[in-house]
Amino acid sequence: MKKTLAILCALCLCLSVFAASAETVKASQPWKIALITMDSIDQHWVKLNEGAQAKATELGVEVTFMSPNTKDDAQQIECVNNAVAGGYNAIMVAANGPDAISSALKEAQAAGVKIVYVDSPANVPAEATFSTDNQAAGKTAGETMIAALTAANITEGSIGIVNVNAATDSTVKREAGFRSAFEGTKFTLLETQYGEGDAAKSQTIAENYITQGVVGIFGCNEGSTTGTGNAIKASGKAIIGVGFDKSDAILGLIQDGYLLATMAQNPDVMGSMGVEACVKALEGENLGGAVTDTGVSVLTK
Amino acid sequence: MQAKRLNPARRFLAIRGMASAMIAFVALIVIYIVFGLREPNVFSSANIQNLLRSMSKYLIIGIGQSYLLITGNIDLSLGSVVGMSAMISATLMTHGTNPLVAALISLVCCLMIGFINGVLVGKAQLPPFIATLGTMFVARGIAYMINGNRNTDAIASGIGKEAGDSFQNVFYYGKTLGVYNTFLVALAVFAVFFFLLSKTRTGRHIYAIGSNMDAAKLSGVSVFATTTKAYMVSAFCSFMVGLILCAQAGMGNMEAGNMYEMYAVAAGVIGGISPLGGTGLLLGTLAGAAVWQTLENGLNMIGAQVGLQRIVIGVIVVFSVLLDVVVRRGTRKRNK
Q: Mean pLDDT of residues grouped by 10 in chain B (336 residues)?
């Protein structure tokens, strides 16, 4: 038994080693960069990683995707600690909670690791930030919804908001932007509900909103939007659903008419520019903590 | 009785649960070396420090759950109590309460959940799986409600920058004698509960009700008192991990400790704590927690997929229990 266990462990690990083997290094400075997003499941992060990997191959550096399995502050901090202990030269991070991760990032900086933010910054000054202006994008989402409601001759009624949680900075800003678009209208924005970015939980929330008789629902991220779209689909009602992020499921829901629009960010651009910035910073260039808006486009049918 | 005639090494392994604990240590070394061959930084002193700090939380909750597993029970509320501890402490601190006072209030609340678990399981004879499933939801609900369904602000905002920093240093970011404080805290918790389990009457009672409840009752062991003590140990461990997570994030997170009850079962079981009760050593839990953390750390460091991480851990847990079942069957046959 003892041997079987040991052999099995070893086997599993060897398999993982093969699965994880990524790219060959070809440049003179093979910097090691850790990419730590909020989780490793959302297509948003997968796309961001793809953008980063493509740039890494081009520049001849190594990017390792070291993200937690769910949006969890403690797990994300562990990933930062692992990257520092693993001798990475730079960390590209999308902060899940801007407060929570700050002490760990300071510790990383003290160990000489360069920090670049992608998507969501934390409270510690870093080399550079590549993100969507979430508040502006949220406002665009709100305006898109108002336009659709007006077109359908609806000028009042309640609107539900499905968010991730109260700590994720990017989605909190989207919600704030969305709410700001409704100032001066007769619509009532209901109390925000949190679905942890989980499509199933978000769907339940959206279904509850539909039971309350809402005219529109806003999903603040990929999971929230998928859940919202599925709930509208299941209800069969003409509710205006507007969401955030791009995935095959969301695009399908838009094609089939259950969602009106989604605000598509450009995660691949974030990843690609993030790697570039890491390399520049590692080669001694001062980026001065500049914040770059990577933009958003409104995707409709 | 036979053990007296054996040589020291065999006598050592003849201690119930020792063989399984040693297997876990061997597995740990194998896993560590395999990762190290793939990623040399695994062997760096920075990573060893990092590993010790990260495994501390699994060690502490593992100890708590081991106490219950040895009594033949389980504590599903453990992870939620971690969240409750983090949220109560952090909320109080953001309102300016002294960290020590905040921790004490949080401790009392956590111990109350432990006591309630003890009453439900030990006195009312509810199945532990159901009783603690209930308190799991209750404790998580409290964690949500403490700060009005929101995570707290940074603790430094209430108690001030200096007190906030020192709290974070004491439990997570600081080092004493070159070792992260978190690990020293875990070692202290380990030492206390190791002593309680192996050197005191309470410890013997915990093994007794786990291996044969009726026999224990007939010999005058109070099942209620012993079960309650075990649940309160578990609640105390959850409380400590709550403080660590609170210090780590510098704030209270409502989801803190999510799923930890299961990680704790895994740490114990990998280390040879029998989920059927009556056997197991905290030394095994130490090895189990280290195995778990080394896997997480190593797989993360080589950029392995999350799904793979889960599969590896799942397989190891099942094999550990299988080992326990096979060993038990063997012992029973020999005794016949």
A: 64 79 90 90 89 95 96 95 96 93 97 96 94 96 91 87 91 91 96 95 94 90 94 97 94 91 93 88 94 89 79 86 77 62
Say how many CA atoms lie within 13 Å of B289 toward its Cβ. 28
DSSP letters along A80-139, please?
A: HHHHHHTT-SEEEE--SSTTTTHHHHHHHHHTT-EEEEESS--SS--SEEEE--HHHHHH
Q: Could you report the per-residue pLDDT of A26-44, keeping only the tens digit for each? A: 445 799 999 999 988 888 8
Amino acid at the residue A59: L
Tokens at A11, concatenated: 């086997």
**B270 in helix, strand or coil?**
helix
What is the dotted CATH code of the domain comprising A134-265?
A: 3.40.50.2300
Q: Mutating which of A67, A78, A91, A102 best tests the B interface, going by the most B Cβ atoms within 10 A?
A: A78
Burial of residue B105, with CB atoms counted within 10 A of its CB: 0-12 exposed, 13-18 middle, 19 or more buried: middle
Instruction: Tell me the angle at which helices B282-301 and B260-270 cross, rounded to the nearest 10 degrees.
Output: 110
* CB within 8 Å of chain B, chain A residues 151-210: 165-167, 194, 196
A66–B153 CB contact, under 8 Å? no
Q: Which fold has domain A25-132+267-294?
A: Rossmann fold (3.40.50)
The token duo for A38 is 């909020």
Q: Where are the domains of chain B?
A: 53-331
Q: B293: Cβ–Cβ under 8 A, 6 or more apart, which residues? A: B51, B54, B55, B58
Contact at 8 Å (CB) between A204 and A166?
A: no
Give the integer Cα–Cα distance in Å for B47 and B38.
14
Taking alpha carbons only, the member of A189, A238, A247, A246 closest to residue A218 is A189
- Helix ranges (DSSP H) in B169-305: 181-199, 201-211, 213-218, 223-249, 260-270, 282-301
Phi, psi angles (nearest 5°) of residue A119: 70, -60
A141 vs A13: CA distance, rounded Å: 45
Which tokens belong to B287?
A: 């090895």
- Give the Cα separation of A261 and A138 in Å (integer): 12
**For the whole model, what pTM was predicted?**
0.80
Whether residues A85 and B44 touch (CB distance < 8 A) is answered with yes
Helix and strand numbers (H, E) in chain B are 15, 2
Bridge partners of A93, per DSSP, are A36, A117
CATH architecture assigned to B53-331: Orthogonal Bundle (1.10)
Of A231, A250, A276, nearest in space to A43 by CA? A250
The whole-number average pLDDT for the span A271-286 is 92
**What is the number of helices (H) and of strands (E) in chain A?**
10, 13
Contacts of A103 in chain B (CB under 8 A): 168, 172-173, 248-250
Q: Which of A36, A24, A34, A93 is nearest to A60 (CA)?
A: A24
As a whole number of angstroms, the distance between CA B100 and CA B93 comes to 9
Furthest C-alpha separation in chain B: 66
B301 chain-A contacts, CB cut-off 8 A? 64, 66, 82-83, 85-86
Q: CA B248 to CA B57: how far, in whole Å?
A: 11
Shortest CB distance from B300 goes to which of A8, A66, A101?
A66
